[in-house]
Amino acid sequence: MSEIFDELQWRGLVAQTTDVAALRKALADGPLTMYVGFDPSADSLHIGNLVQLIVARKMQRAGHRVLCLVGGSTGLIGDPKPDSERVMRSKDEVAAAVALIRQQAEALLDFEGDNPAMMVNNLDWTEPISALDFLRDYGKHFRVNAMIKKDAVSRRLNSDQGISYTEFSYQILQGLDYLHLYRAEGCTLQLGGSDQWGNLLAGVDLIHSADGASVHAMTTPLITDASGRKYGKSEGNALWLNPDRMSPYAFYQFWINLDDSDVIDKMRVFTDQDEASIQDYAQQVTEEPFRRAAQKAIAAEMTTLVHGAEATAAVQAASEALFGKGDVAALDARTLQDATAELPGGEVAPGTGVVDALIAVGIADSRNAARRLIGEGGVSVNNIKVTDSDATLDTSTFLHGKVALLKRGRKHLAAARNPR
């Protein structure tokens, strides 16, 4: 337990804390109880949430107790956005999203054994509170002059739109969560993203004001790409954990495509690789970047963590097959669809000649060019070289009846999609 904070710092997983020395001592003296919460603003967790779950996993393995909160009540209100009022979601929509997020979180923490994690829903203790009790028992501990200093609130107050009391009250609701879990479960540490710092402090201050106790808060850093752009819903580039939102293949490809300048930092944050292993991968990135050993390692570990070993094996097979190192015909229908979804291409009906198909998918710009490519031995269909310029794509060429993989050389891929 005494080493967990040092590990989190080394991995770059600590952005802010209320009191470093006090938190370090509390962790060393542990076990302590901590919680991390997720609001159902979407029907999936994303890569930023994954960072917090990874910290929670490490804390649990170090012997600390983890509470995972899904925001059945706070999700009905919504954390204020800096630019506009949130669109209210129905109770049924929020409940459905809560169930999906709960399922995802349960797959990443250990809810059995000697130190099981515990799943909680803040609707259970918030819904029974009357409006009068909410104002008397909790609202009295909050000062408006402090609440309006929160960045998102301040920006909204200075806008033409302003902010509704509904969203303004969000930080009271989140503070109430911490107070409830402190009283009911002895929770003394809340974990969140660095953009949640103001809400975390609201809970710390509420516990101090209401019960005279000192508790802790810690945030994880925002996750950015090599250029410093963050990943998230607001940026339109969120990396979802739900396979219906982001396929395992696309998830795997994100990690495979990490920049050499970024992959080692991501390994520290996301994986269980120790310092010696990460140093070894860093050396390989420097000396043999073309092997992409670090990218392959993190892609396999993260895809297995989120989607399971079977999904990882399927997407690895697809990656190999697309570039001629495996049997593309052996891929299952879902993996094939995911693997070819982002490829350039076009609709090609069964019976179309290969020459016309090459034009349709954009590999050749004319029939003469297509025939020349075939004559030079540079064209393959489903990784089988085409030698006859009069060959056609019959029904059996379309894998699972859906798509045929056309290739020029080793790297120029396109998908011929059956329109029927």
From TrEMBL:
<dbReference type="GO" id="GO:0006437">
    <property type="term" value="P:tyrosyl-tRNA aminoacylation"/>
</dbReference>
<feature type="short sequence motif" description="'KMSKS' region">
    <location>
        <begin position="230"/>
        <end position="234"/>
    </location>
</feature>
<dbReference type="GO" id="GO:0005829">
    <property type="term" value="C:cytosol"/>
</dbReference>
<dbReference type="InterPro" id="IPR054608">
    <property type="entry name" value="SYY-like_C"/>
</dbReference>
<dbReference type="InterPro" id="IPR014729">
    <property type="entry name" value="Rossmann-like_a/b/a_fold"/>
</dbReference>
<feature type="binding site">
    <location>
        <position position="35"/>
    </location>
    <ligand>
        <name>L-tyrosine</name>
    </ligand>
</feature>
<dbReference type="GO" id="GO:0042803">
    <property type="term" value="F:protein homodimerization activity"/>
</dbReference>
<feature type="binding site">
    <location>
        <position position="170"/>
    </location>
    <ligand>
        <name>L-tyrosine</name>
    </ligand>
</feature>
<keyword id="KW-0648">Protein biosynthesis</keyword>
<dbReference type="InterPro" id="IPR002305">
    <property type="entry name" value="aa-tRNA-synth_Ic"/>
</dbReference>
<dbReference type="Pfam" id="PF00579">
    <property type="entry name" value="tRNA-synt_1b"/>
</dbReference>
<dbReference type="InterPro" id="IPR024107">
    <property type="entry name" value="Tyr-tRNA-ligase_bac_1"/>
</dbReference>
<keyword id="KW-0436">Ligase</keyword>
<comment type="function">
    <text>Catalyzes the attachment of tyrosine to tRNA(Tyr) in a two-step reaction: tyrosine is first activated by ATP to form Tyr-AMP and then transferred to the acceptor end of tRNA(Tyr).</text>
</comment>
<dbReference type="GO" id="GO:0003723">
    <property type="term" value="F:RNA binding"/>
</dbReference>
<comment type="subunit">
    <text>Homodimer.</text>
</comment>
<keyword id="KW-0694">RNA-binding</keyword>
<dbReference type="GO" id="GO:0005524">
    <property type="term" value="F:ATP binding"/>
</dbReference>
<keyword id="KW-0030">Aminoacyl-tRNA synthetase</keyword>
<keyword id="KW-0547">Nucleotide-binding</keyword>
<dbReference type="InterPro" id="IPR002307">
    <property type="entry name" value="Tyr-tRNA-ligase"/>
</dbReference>
<keyword id="KW-0963">Cytoplasm</keyword>
<dbReference type="InterPro" id="IPR001412">
    <property type="entry name" value="aa-tRNA-synth_I_CS"/>
</dbReference>
<comment type="similarity">
    <text>Belongs to the class-I aminoacyl-tRNA synthetase family. TyrS type 1 subfamily.</text>
</comment>
<keyword id="KW-0067">ATP-binding</keyword>
<dbReference type="InterPro" id="IPR024088">
    <property type="entry name" value="Tyr-tRNA-ligase_bac-type"/>
</dbReference>
<dbReference type="Pfam" id="PF22421">
    <property type="entry name" value="SYY_C-terminal"/>
</dbReference>
<feature type="binding site">
    <location>
        <position position="174"/>
    </location>
    <ligand>
        <name>L-tyrosine</name>
    </ligand>
</feature>
<feature type="binding site">
    <location>
        <position position="233"/>
    </location>
    <ligand>
        <name>ATP</name>
    </ligand>
</feature>
<dbReference type="GO" id="GO:0004831">
    <property type="term" value="F:tyrosine-tRNA ligase activity"/>
</dbReference>
<feature type="short sequence motif" description="'HIGH' region">
    <location>
        <begin position="40"/>
        <end position="49"/>
    </location>
</feature>
<dbReference type="InterPro" id="IPR002942">
    <property type="entry name" value="S4_RNA-bd"/>
</dbReference>
<protein>
    <recommendedName>
        <fullName>Tyrosine--tRNA ligase</fullName>
        <ecNumber>6.1.1.1</ecNumber>
    </recommendedName>
</protein>
<feature type="domain" description="RNA-binding S4">
    <location>
        <begin position="353"/>
        <end position="414"/>
    </location>
</feature>
<dbReference type="InterPro" id="IPR036986">
    <property type="entry name" value="S4_RNA-bd_sf"/>
</dbReference>
